[in-house]
Amino acid sequence: MVVNNSSSSSANGSNGGGGQKPAAAAKRAPPPSTWTVFLFHFALPMALVAILSNINDIYSGLVSFPSHLLHHTSNTAKTMQPKLSTESSVKMPTLSPKERPTAAVNNQQHPQTQTTVTTTTTRPTVATTKSSTTATTTQSSKTSTSTSNHPRHRQNAASDPFHQQMETNIRTLRHQYKQAVNTPNEHLAAIQLADFLKYRDTVIHDGGTYQMEAIEVYSSALSLLEDKWRNMMTNGEDTRKTATAHDNEHHDDQENDYYSTGLNHEIFLDYGSKSIEGLLCATYTNLGKTYFMSNMFERAVQSHNQCLSYDHRYIDALSSRGQAYIILGKYKEAATDFFQVLYMDSNRLFGNVVTGLARCLSADDNVIDGGWESLVQLLEADIPRQVESLQRAKELSDDSAAATIKHYADILKHMHHAMFQYHDIKTKNVSEAWKHLSKGNEYKMSTLAPFDEAFELDKVSRLKNVFTPGFWPAGMGSDTKTPIFIIGFVRSGSTLLERILDAHPLIVGTGEDSVFNGRLDSIRNDIIKASMAGQGEFLQTVKKLADDVVVDMIKRWEIIDANTNSEEDLSSERAQEPTRFVDKMLSNYMNVGFIHLLFPNALILHVAREPMDSIFSAFKHDFPPGGFDYTSEFSSLARLYHGYRDVMEHWDKVLPGRVTHIRYEDLVKDLPGMAPKILEKAGVPWDPAVLEFHQKKHAVNTLSTTQVRKGVYSHHLKGWKRYEEFLEPLLKRIGSRVEFKLSTSLTPSTS
């Protein structure tokens, strides 16, 4: 499938027969050009890989598709599932402005949605960006490194049948929405479309392609619903329904059943059965979740507040608002929301509030009365009950069994991880902490497909065979230095490095919102097509692809900046327009070859941490589903780490000096010495503000949120040593790579 260097140069030799004199060597065929090497070593192999990948997807069968998203009603809520909210039970969310998003409806192939949304004065709006009224959203969830066949783990999305089915359904829903304009069902059609757009960007990690469209359509539906609500209030009509036994038939525990009060009993109803206030709450909550996905955290809080103005105990909004508060560093507010949900949600349908509250307590033990003990007392009483429920679920034989088992396994995972944090941080009881961590990871792994080690090995091998020395054509890509790419293994200190850079007035850190990674699949396809048309068109295409990425990075920042408000408004902190944008997607270490192809002059920063500190940190953290699932067991975690080291060694071999290596330990031990070197490498002047990065009011959507707000500290170095006796099997799997003898590009200026 891949042509080796030796084969491409097989023309070398004499023009004559075997007896040709040595002098005839001067007439040998010239060595292959860089373009020829690129064509035969990259374009053709990549085209074949794409074809084979598509064939494998077809043979593995089309993935199951939630067809109930295409209908106004659903019985999904009757099945016990994790997060049985308006989102997970797929009850169509609602939208808002009276100004219908006709452009998004008509542009069915590549929607470029308006960033200006007309709304009422009580509703958060999407502000107009500074340079354009349209933008493509490229929010990315943590890119998956797992190898499950689940659609959320697929990387080559555009050629994936699941992806294609998604696009077909989106076009269908857009058409249905367009046909429903000015009809009584317009709000339902809008909700269906917006919910599906959000769902699509949750399970396909390509940069949040449809988030802005979803926000606009949700806003349109909300405008319609609010008009209807006002009319009903004027006419003295009921705006919410009374709970019935049928509405709550899936709740076992009737004691303290808050699902029977207020609007909570409507959470599990399909959209067609909700009252007008139930629709408003569900839609505002889903709009808030979409804002959260788009890194507009203040907007998310505002949207959830709108829902809670109708019912201050609406559990789904409280749970989601708490998550946004964590990102904003408002731990007391987040803990208050989480604890209220825990008290009301007797069936633990919103299990993420357990780990959310644990994160708040890890940051500040005083965020709730009684501190850790309040949570621990609740968990110690609740874990046995959840274990019994899981055992009963395993005895079921109906269609709901798998979802029910996964629900209880997820709940127990959250609970044991919270208990791990309690013993790790508070009691310092290593044995108890490890017991809960290993049990939590066991529950987590029980719901995942087996790790495909052969796939991981093949992926790394294929990369090495494709990206060989000297195949990058001269003069390719853009001359820009605007992007700064941060790569590395998970939990390596990348968030710290990004926050330091972001504190500089000329640099913007966008979190794990990788525009480049989100567009990578289409970039690959466009490069392959252009390479077949000749060198001239290829070089032109690559430059345009690179420039488009930069344009989208700037637009993306402008949208977020325009929608960041109150005392934390970033625009007030920047007297100058930024000239550098940080792209922090750790798994991009696999994509250095593509980064260099598009941006040969862009800075690539590889932050490396002491191996076992990074590996153990990955093992003990519960990442969002579809991100780094397989870091929760020793064998797969070790394979992923070896793959990372293999790839980084390969880049240093084929692109010597291209990647700038930074040791995390150097950052935390001598930031004043390292910071000037990093800024010099980034091409920006020195600014002492970077040393006070932790004092900057900035939302950080990562598991490192609580840590980076504390500034630089080194007491956690070698933290894995406390658990060394339990990590012995993992140490053996890592082998000699427990030492990382990295030749760093930057060292402290004071050393």
Note the topology.
Elements lengths: L4 H4 L25 H26 L42 H5 L6 E2 L19 E2 L25 H20 L5 H18 L7 H24 L41 H18 L3 H12 L6 H13 L3 H14 L7 H12 L8 H23 L6 H27 L2 H16 L7 H14 L16 E5 L6 H9 L4 E3 L5 H17 L3 H28 L17 E5 L7 H7 L4 E6 L2 H10 L13 H21 L5 E4 H6 L1 H12 L22 H4 L19 H7 L17
Parallel strand pairs: 3-5, 3-6, 4-5, 6-7
Antiparallel strand pairs: 1-2
Brief digest:
By secondary structure, the chain is mainly alpha-helical. The protein has helices at 5-8, 34-59, 102-106, 161-180, 186-203, 211-234, 276-293, 297-308, 315-327, 331-344, 352-363, 372-394, 401-427, 430-445, 453-466, 494-502, 515-531, 535-562, 592-598, 611-620, 634-654, 664-669, 671-682, 705-708, 728-734; strands spanning 113-114, 134-135, 483-487, 507-509, 580-584, 603-608, 660-663.
Query: What radius of gyration results from the CA coordinates?
Result: 27 Å
Strand order of the largest sheet: 4-5-3-6-7
> Percent of residues in helical segments?
40-55%
Structural class: mainly alpha
Number of strands: 7
Main beta sheet: strand number and arrangement?
5 strands, parallel
Task: Tally the helices.
Answer: 25
